[in-house]
Amino acid sequence: MSTAAARAEARRRALRERGTDRLAKLTTSARGEDSPVYNTPGSSCLSRIGTLQPGSVSVTEKPLPNPTSNLENFVGEETYVPSPSRRAPSTSAFNPTPAADPSTWSQEQQMEFMRALMGAAMTPPNNPSQGAPPSITSPGQSTSAPDDPLAALMSSLTQMDPQAADAGAVPNPFANMGSSFPPPQTSSPPKPPSALRKLMPLIHLLATWCLLAYYVLVSEPRTAFAGQGWQRWADLAWRKSGAVQAVPFFWAFTTLQLVLHSWRVFSGFDTIQPPMLLAMALPQLPKPLPAIILNGMKYMQLGGAMLDDLAALVFALGMIVWVASWLSN
Questions:
Q1: Fewer CB within 10 Å of terminal CB in the chain, N or C?
Q2: Which residue in 5, 14, 1, 4 sits closest to 59, CA to CA?
Q3: pLDDT tens for residues 295-306?
């Protein structure tokens, strides 16, 4: 009885395990390869058929079919799962001396560059066995490239003019940088005015007063009636007097102005200095306009000088009338 019951119990257990295994296979096929049945090492359970008592019934172990082969049969194709690649451990953190960057300059090259920028003279080494200072070139660049602009700049920085070195002058390292471009046209700085040019307003004033004095003291009394004296000039202070005779003073004054202004023009005293904003805008204007503007400013300067002479002439006439009225009384 015990043997039959044990066999029946083993049979039921085997059927139960087989049904559980089929259910697990269906669930695994629906979930895919992420099911824990493939990840658990002990997921392949054994079907054991036998008695519970050792030695009574021989226990036969039947391994379950491979889940991967069941998945291939169910899906119809082979699914390849690549194994993750393992990176080689980095040794840069434990390397005390990393490789130097080939694009950086050494300490000597940096110091040489700073000395060249500061304009220091290259003194020869004390020891004759020592070589020349290292050239300021990048390790990745060729030292025999004559067309390299950086090498040309460095060579111009490190070279000095012997005459300038004797005089103690620091060379200009950027003097030849723009040699391929034409220099900009810059106007020469204005020269200080000469002493004669500074005295031109005084010369105009004295010439005008001398001409007026000649006509008042010499030319007009020759045509005036005798016995009137300064009274005819004193009458001009309060009425229009007909005692003062007409003389050709206008033409004489015009001739004097022509002589004075011609002297200014031919002596170069009529040069003008336009304002800063106008001087900056003149080169940008079309061709006729700058000449017209400059000539107009010159004529305005001449006209201003003529108005100054007229003002001096009117002031001198007023002083003559006032002195004549004081002398006549």
A1: N
A2: 14
A3: 899 889 889 999
Position 143 scores a pLDDT of: 46
Kindly state the tokens that stand for 80: 């390849």
* CA distance linking residue 87 with residue 101, whole number of Å: 25
Q: What are phi and psi of 320, to 5 degrees?
A: -65, -40
- Please report where in the chains the tokens 């940096």 appear, as a residue: 110
**In this structure, which amino acid lies at residue 79?**
T
The closest of 37, 45, 46 to 68, measured between CA atoms, is: 37
Task: Supply φ then ψ for residue 289, to 5 degrees.
Answer: -65, -40
End-to-end CA distance of the chain: 181
d(CA 151, CA 156): 9
Q: Is 49 helix (H, G, I), strand (E, B) or coil?
A: strand
DSSP per-residue string spanning 171-217: P-TTSSTTTTSPPP--PPPPPPPPHHHHTHHHHHHHHHHHHHHHIII
DSSP 8-state secondary structure symbol assigned to residue 229:
T
pLDDT, tens digit (0-9, with 9 covering 90-100), for 185-230: 445 566 777 788 888 889 999 999 999 999 888 887 776 665 566 7
DSSP string covering 117-146: HTT---PPPSSTTS-PPPP---TTS-TT-T
Q: Chain centroid to CA 90: how far?
A: 44
pTM higher than 0.90 for the full model? no
**160-175: per-residue pLDDT in tens?**
444 444 444 445 555 5
